[in-house]
Amino acid sequence: MKESVVAYTLSKCVKCMKCIRACPVSAISMENNRIIVNHERCTNCGKCIEACHNQGLVAQGSTLVDIANYDYTVCLVPPALSSVCQSRENAEDLFNAVKLLGFDEVIDLSPYYAKVLQESMAYRPVQKPAIVSMCPVINRLVKTKYQILIDHLIPMNYPAETAAREIREAYAARGNVGIFNLCECPSRLSHAKYPYGNTGSEIDHALSIADIFPMIRTNLGKGRIPVTFCRDGFAAMDAAMLSEHDKVLAADGYDKVENVLDLAEFGRLKEFDLLYLFPCFNGCSGGQLLIGNSYLNHLNLQKLVRESSAETKQIDDRYLWRDGFMAEEDQRSFTEKMSFFSKVNEVLEQLPGYDCSACGMRTCRIMAEEIVNGNRSLGDCHILNSGTREETK
Amino acid sequence: MTVLLHEEFVVTRGDYKNAGSVSSAIKDKLRTIGIDAKILRRISIACYEAEINMLIHAWGGLITMDVSDDGTVRFVFKDPGPGIPDLDDAMTPGFSTASDDAREMGFGAGMGLPNIRKVSDDFDIQSSPEGTTITLGFHL
Fold it and tell me: What's the pLDDT tens digit per position in B11-50?
């Protein structure tokens, strides 16, 4: 059973069902007045958390208490966090403030993001266009919905994972090393906590920036740690900057990303070498757990790029690459699939088709599937019960 | 052999804004059934190319899809004309009669029909000034 970091608090839930309607993959439903997240379907995009106005659904990260359990602690800082800073000086102040939380070392991830960009550019795919696998949501979306494109995904670790693997080996002599990762979005938080890949993650604890930022803030203005940002590292998380490359199609925003994946499935995007896709609007600087406005963060990013270095870091291939992605296969026979589909269609014809979610399911189709599975009955449909449908007919 | 699912879709001539929407609907439907991704890839490409052909070359048309219990998916793409003057030319990779506005939209590379034939298991095309009918079969 896969797990996700989307955590539910019953006492805070007002049963508005906004999360159910917000979920692009119909992973949320309501049963006995409780929200249920189907973790098999969930892509950790965080749309439900965004839609929840009452903190009933939140992205649950680790806490700093765990620092005490290690001999030596390292904190990985994503370039997205630097995008809340207006200058490099501010960023150096921020890095110091992060270290003062109790870490022995703070490591900037921009060289690892840059590496993903450079290696992706040089990648010769079996199937064009290759899809950059830097975002866990994209990987998950391709694996579950756009399975046609699964062999288009570049088998590369996420930047934080690459860094963690490298650090784990390099710091082996330092005793029990704790690797913490500050995360800008629920999907990265989720990857570190419950990795999807073929192997486990080397990241020990994933921290939500939204949770930790108040504490970082109290440490600001107490000094600086020199940081040399890697320019490509910022470009690697920003669709606008990536669009300067001819053979790259970069898109941000969940709907746009789905449009692009749809076209790629039709074989229409073969003229591009790379698809660089960000489900978050404004790329990673639009990460849901980040502080501040994503447009302002985006502007900051452009300033930081001017103050960063073009130099890149050598990273060993064994940290960077991973095994290929495997599709999750449907074990049912063709006859079983068709029989289920026909039964669902029969039920669907009796349902109103408003997709109102009042029953607790996102769409009438999902409801019909639940009815066929025996988990619900037609009597659970509020529209049918009220007789509204007859009047409108 | 019994038909388990029969669906019809209308394609409107020159409706570039919705180009691919029928293929998307077909793809979604087959994905919901749980058709294997490798076959779905070929079906998606064929449907898209055929739909675009109807949109830019023909006066629209009708697409029918039949899923049968013997594990075949059959498509018929039927348009009301004006027909393909030379089928051999049309089946030659790179040959195109697409208008400039279609090319500007990124269509009309002359790979449509050759691609459709390449990805389908069964392929048949009949054309006269009264219309063109393409029949495709895929074995699941």
Answer: 998 888 898 999 999 999 999 999 999 999 999 999 999 9
Strand segments (E) across A66-154: 72-77, 105-108, 130-131
Q: What is the DSSP letter of A300?
A: H
In b/e form, how buried is each residue of A75-106, taking b as 16+ CB within 10 angstroms?
A: bbbbbbbbbbbeebebbbbbbbbbbbbebbeb
Residues of A in contact with B52 (CB under 8 A): none
CATH number belonging to domain B3-139: 3.30.565.10
Q: Tens digit of pLDDT for each residue in A214-241?
A: 999 999 999 999 999 999 999 999 888 8
Q: Which residues of B touch A (CB under 8 A)?
A: 4-5, 20, 23-24, 27, 31-37, 40-41, 44-45, 48, 67, 69, 71, 106, 115, 140
- Please check whether residue A265 touches B, CB under 8 A: yes
Buried b (16+ CB within 10 A) or exposed e, A362-387: bbbbbbbbbbbeeebeeebbebbeee
Q: What is the pLDDT of residue A195?
A: 59
Domains located in chain A, CATH noted: 1-59 (3.30.70.20), 64-320 (no CATH), 334-393 (1.10.15.40)
Element (H, E) at A261: helix A254-265
Supply the ipTM of this predicted assembly: 0.87
**Is the pLDDT score of B135 beyond 70?**
yes
- Mind listing the pLDDT tens digit for each residue in B100-132? 777 777 677 777 899 999 999 999 999 999 999
Say how many residues make up chain B: 140
Q: Where are the domains of chain B?
A: 3-139
In sequence order, the 6+-apart residues with CB closer than 8 A to the CB of B106 are A268
Using alpha carbons, list the distances in angstroms from residue A89 to A93, A176, A312.
6, 32, 21
Q: How far, in Å, CA of A89 to CA of A94, rounded?
A: 9
